[in-house]
Amino acid sequence: MGLGADLVHSTLGRHILADGYDFVIDLDKSAGCHFHDSRSGRDILDMFSCFASLPLGWNHPDLLAAKGELARASVNKVANSDLYTEAMAESVAAFGRIASPSYLPHHFFVSGGALAVENTMKAAMDWKSHDREAMGIDASGKFDWDTDQEKSSHLTIGHFHEAFHGRSGYTLSVTNTDPNKTARFAKFDWPRFDNPKIHFPVDEAENARLDACEAATLDSIRAHAEANPDTMAAIIMEPIQGEGGDNHFRDSFLRDMRSVCDEVGALYIFDEVQTGMGATGKMWAHQHSSVEPDMIAFGKKSQVCGLMAGPRLKEFDDNVFATSSRINSTWGGNLTDFVRARLILETIERDDLVRNAEVVGAELIAGLNEFGTSHEMVSSVRGRGLFAAFTLPSQDIRNRFNSACLEAGMHVLNSGTQSIRLRPSLTFSSDEVNEGLNILESVANSIESSAVA
């Protein structure tokens, strides 16, 4: 007999800060895009999907059918960095075939999105250090601790306002959303640039504003590089900033960023931990812009996290993909996660779920636009595929709206200071779009009625 749902929070609270949601997930009764709350007995429409990390919803039949394979991978936690198995090789091959763009053939796997991002930074710093030596800026030769400290201290990572890239060592210096996540921790003073995000809906005036904002950002990057030549190893950005407010950028700006990175001698990195694996209607969000970065970080829906890199990372023989232990971890990505990732990718491919995200996502965003037109409190409806959001008049109203959605039977997620973000699984259906829109309509009507009263 189990612990009992009503004792879960108090039991956890004896040892950890158990300040999560009040419900308790029933791992048996949850199914598809609904999870079952053991405490209330309710089925909740899941527009949260474990912080956008649940690609097939709950208890997908393909995963249930593979319980034996998953259990076999879980009995022994193999040190994948140096000990290889058929299960790992099959999973890496599936990832390369189904998920990896041809221009990013070099892979590294690790557990955790922040560590995926951090290792793109380390790879970029390694590349830039070799680049500086090749240009004669830094001397090459036998390693010396003090000399290396001085040489590496010049290296920086450019990034954007309202970015979230994680909470581990290097990533703390480029994350700047919620101060609770970075305050009082030592950080590097790395260049931070204005993010020329789109204000929706887009009209002629907004495009003119964006022209000016984008030009100013690009000029500030050039100015920083001119004042601090050959120090910026890379510029990292999210194709759509998730936690920072679901901030979108014009495709042309992402292409201009490719050009300016080349111009100033920096690698171009996309953090696709949240936007990747089909959420936007393409396998990777940057593919909407027809731009090829030097690296991307991936995680969440991919189960196992890591990075993919292009040919520039191989320009120097002594690179992180050729020299042992330059980037590494004990488990190199959990073997159970590898197996689950392979099963998920095979299902995504077979059921054409990236296309489903595009088609059903278009229905969702069309419905959200109608919803926004009907309610003055709703503004800036935006999204790509099943990666959607809208803005409310204040943080207080947004928080009330979020709570009311859960009470009405749908779990959503906050974004930025005033927005609600929707992150359903790739299996989301037209019927579930309608279910979600009906709940949003009911919640908006209720909040508007209470304001009038």
TrEMBL record:
Its EC number is 2.6.1.36. Keywords: Aminotransferase, Pyridoxal phosphate, Transferase. Transmembrane segments: none annotated. One of its GO terms (molecular function) is pyridoxal phosphate binding. One of its GO terms (biological process) is gamma-aminobutyric acid catabolic process. InterPro entries: Aminotrans_3 (IPR005814), L-lysine_6-transaminase (IPR017657), PyrdxlP-dep_Trfase (IPR015424), PyrdxlP-dep_Trfase_major (IPR015421), PyrdxlP-dep_Trfase_small (IPR015422). NCBIfam families: LAT_fam. Belongs to the class-III pyridoxal-phosphate-dependent aminotransferase family. This is L-lysine-epsilon aminotransferase. It comes from marine metagenome.
